[in-house]
Design goal:
Oligomer: single chain
Number of strands: 7
Distance between the termini: 38 Å
CATH superfamily: Cation efflux protein, cytoplasmic domain
Radius of gyration: 15 Å
Largest sheet: 5 strands, mixed
Amino acid sequence: MKANIQTDHGEVVIDTDVIAKYAGAVAVECFGVVGMATTNVMEGITSLLKKENLSQGISVNVADGKLCLDFHIIVAYGVSISAVSENLIENVRYKVETFTGIPVDKVNIYVEGVRLID
């Protein structure tokens, strides 16, 4: 899938994988987010993704010129999930809109697990 931006000088096309990688990098910088998660639906197993695979824990959809991002995250034990989610949503919305120039309509957070951090 691609996101298109019309400018006075032509069209800019951004692959949604690029947006997902950027959004994943923003997400792991947020306090309380241990990392992105992938879920094996068949086996019911959730695993923490390595930094090079962050985009697999995010889906990006483009509709009516706006972005919708779904994050599957693992949070740190002992943090407020609502506070982490609000912080993540605000940071991602601001940084992705600044990076792409495309408005972010929705950021959905799916907490897939909790981890102790050393």
